TrEMBL record:
GO BP terms: argininosuccinate metabolic process; L-arginine biosynthetic process; urea cycle
Entry keyword Ribonucleoprotein: no
Descriptive protein name: Argininosuccinate synthase
Subcellular location: Cytoplasm
Organism field: Lyngbya aestuarii BL J
Any single GO CC term annotated in Swiss-Prot or TrEMBL for this entry: cytoplasm
Positions that bind L-aspartate: 121, 125-126
Originating gene: argG
Amino acid sequence: MGRATKAVLAYSGGVDTSVCIPYLKNEFGVEGVITLAADLGQGDELEPIKQKALDSGAEESLVIDVRERFVNEFAFPAIQANAFYENRYPLSTALARPLIAQILVEAAEKYGADAIAHGCTGKGNDQVRFDVSITALNPKLKILAPAREWGMSREETIAYGEKCGIQSPVKKSSPYSLDRNLLGMAIEAGPLEDPWVEAPKDVYRLTKAIEDTPNEPEYVEIGFEKGIPVSLNGEFLGGVALITKLNEMSGNHGVGRIDMIENRLVGIKSREIYECPAMTVLIHAHRDLESLTLTADVTRYKRGIEETYSQLVYNGLWFSPLKGALDAFVQQTQERVTGIVRVKLFKGNAIMVGRQSANSLYSMDLATYGSEDVFDHKAAEGFIYIWGLPTRVWSEKLRQ
C-alpha cells in the first residue's frame, strides 16, 4: 500500500500511545501525526493529555467529547438488545471501540490523513475491533499498529520514549490494566492473571464491597420508552445523566461487579474484572419489561438474536452487514417496550420487584386463581390431547 504520509493516532496519554508518536515518524516514516483522544466519560482531565501529545511530537492534538454519542448510538441499542457477552459482560469497553474508530475515520477524512494508528498489542481484542471497524468505514485508509510490531518490553518502551524526549512515568505504575468509560471499568493483568486469586478491594473504583454497602435497600423506578431508558424515579434525564446517576446509586449497593474467565476472539482465555453498575441494572430491567410487553415467541426468538448480537459486538463487527440486519429486528421488537420497572438495590443484588406498562400483555382475569378467573378450564383437556398426541403415538409404537 505504500508508506503513509499523515496518520491520526488513537491517543490515551499513556506510555505506549505517547511513544507511538515518535515511533511512527522514526520507524514507519510517517511525516505528520495527529492525535485524537475521545472523552467517553472516563473522568480524566483531558487537557493535560492534549498538551502531552503536542510535547511528544504531534502536529495537532484533538480532544472530542463523544459521551452523548456513546450513550445514544451505542449503549442504548445494546440495552435494547440485552447484550451480555457470555451472558455476563455488558460490553462496556467493547462498545467504545467502534465509536473511537468512527471518529478516527472522520478525523482522517477531515485532515487529509491517509492512515490511522493505534497502540493495541497483538494479544487483545481491541486491535480487531479497531482494524475491522476502520476497514468497514473506509477501506482505503492504511492501519498502523506500532505496538503490535515493535517487540519492546515496558522498560524498553519507556527508554525509547526518553530517548525521544518523552518523560517517563513519575510514579510506579499500577500492576493492573484499567480501562474506564461512562459505562464501566475493565480491570485486568497483574495479580489478577491467576484465576484462583480473589481480586483485592483496591482494584474497584465504581462499586462498594458488600460489607461496606448500606444495610437498608434502595428502590429505583426506571422508565423506558421503546426500550430506551428515559427516567429514574419519575425524573426524565438525558442518557449521560441517567447512566451517571444510576452508576452511583447501584455502585453504592455493590451492584455490577463481574469476575469472569472470558474467551477472547484471538483464542486465549483471560481473567477479567468488570464494574458496570448502571448497564447491569438497565439490561436486566429492560429484559424484565420485555417479559411483560412481548409475545412469548418473539421473546424466545430474540434470546438467540441477543447472543449473536453480543458476540458480534465483542468480536469487533459493529459495522458488519449481519449486525445491521439484527439491529432492524431488535428495533422492530422495541415498538411496544414502554413502561416502568421497579428495582430493589441491596447487598450486591438488583432485584426486579415490579413492572407496569400500558402495553402489558399480562391479564389479571386470565392469570388469577380467584373468583375473577375467566380462563376456560374445560378447554385444557382438548388442548392437552392435541399437544401430547405426537408423544402418545411415539409411545404406542415403542411398545409394539
